[in-house]
Amino acid sequence: MISRPLAAAVLGLCGLGAVACGGAASSDADATMPDAARNTGPETAGAVSQVSARTAGTPAAKAKPLAGKVIVIDPGHNGGNYRHPEIINKQVNVLTQWKACDTTGTSTNDGYSEAAYTWDVSNRLAKDLRAAGATVKLTRKDNTSVGPCITERAAIGNRAKADAAISIHGDGAPASGHGFHVIIPKKINGPVDPVVDDSRRLGLLIRNAYHAGTGVPYSTYIGKNALDYRDDLGGLNLSKVPKVFIECGNMRNTGDAAKMKDPRFRQRVADSLAKAFQAYLA
């Protein structure tokens, strides 16, 4: 997810080093499940209790472990960002500093973009979570538009009153480094402070599930035990709901890139993350 703001006319791929990415202007891309059917008949309280008791242990009830939960997925960057430097280079306040509204993201050496990777994984994850009963919202509606800004990405989760949120990325570090890491917010005397502890718990579950489900090793170039704590990311600093970033691998590393380009691997990524959310929200 490492990247630089786009130069005026040239697609700016992420530079070397480990710097997480942000986001630019677009509408809230809601993708929600229909509301569950409600029983509005004139049952007495006792009858309702009996029905609840009978159905609580049914296979149907157990098959929807995330029913009633709201999860926001932020697919990092956007496929159209490179066409609009005037938008994504705009500076926004992330409380600890001013940063670009968004960046183009990185890519593999043969041109598979981070924006395409995050869009695909996010939609696979959304499908898994909806199947488990969750209401899911994405921060962007396609992979051809611009943004939204990193500040708006956080605001989408806040407005949704999400039970949990994740920003999905691929890194653009030196090619010698490989592996994944999870980015967890720090306290900054700002909106994120009340959810820092819950974000850390979510991050640990995501790390464990991702490692077990994909076999990707812990990052060799940043963080400790695949955990990196940061206070410079608008998507985390401005979040009022538990939220983490995941850098699913280094797209500049040949081995990581080969995995990330494989749709079967991307499905394993989605399945692993879905398990982490179920564990967190159980």
Written overview of the protein:
The chain is α/β, with parallel strands linked by helices and 282 residues long. The chain has nine helices and nine strands. The protein has helices at 45-55, 59-62, 85-88, 114-131, 150-159, 196-214, 234-237, 254-260, 263-281, and strands at residues 29-30, 70-75, 91-93, 98-100, 135-138, 164-171, 181-185, 227-230, 243-250. The strands form two sheets. Strands 1-5-2-6-9-7-8 form a seven-stranded mixed sheet, with helices on both faces. Strand 3 and strand 4 (98-100) form a beta hairpin. Helix 4 (114-131) packs across helix 9 and helix 6 crosses helix 9. 50% of the residues are buried. Mean pLDDT is 85; it is low at 2-56.
In short:
By secondary structure, this protein is α/β, with parallel strands linked by helices. It contains 9 helices and 9 strands.
Content of β-strand: 15-25%
* DSSP summary: helix tally: 9
What is the typical, i.e. mean, pLDDT? 85
Helical residue percent band? 25-40%
Task: State the distance separating the first and last CA atoms.
Answer: 30 Å
Structural class assignment:
alpha/beta
Strand order of the largest sheet: 1-5-2-6-9-7-8
Radius of gyration: 19 Å
Q: Main β-sheet, in a few words?
A: 7 strands, mixed
Taking pLDDT < 50 over at least 5 consecutive residues as the criterion, the unreliable ranges are 2-56
**Gross morphology:** globular
β-strand number: 9
Element-level helix/strand string: EHHEHEEHEHEEHEHEHH
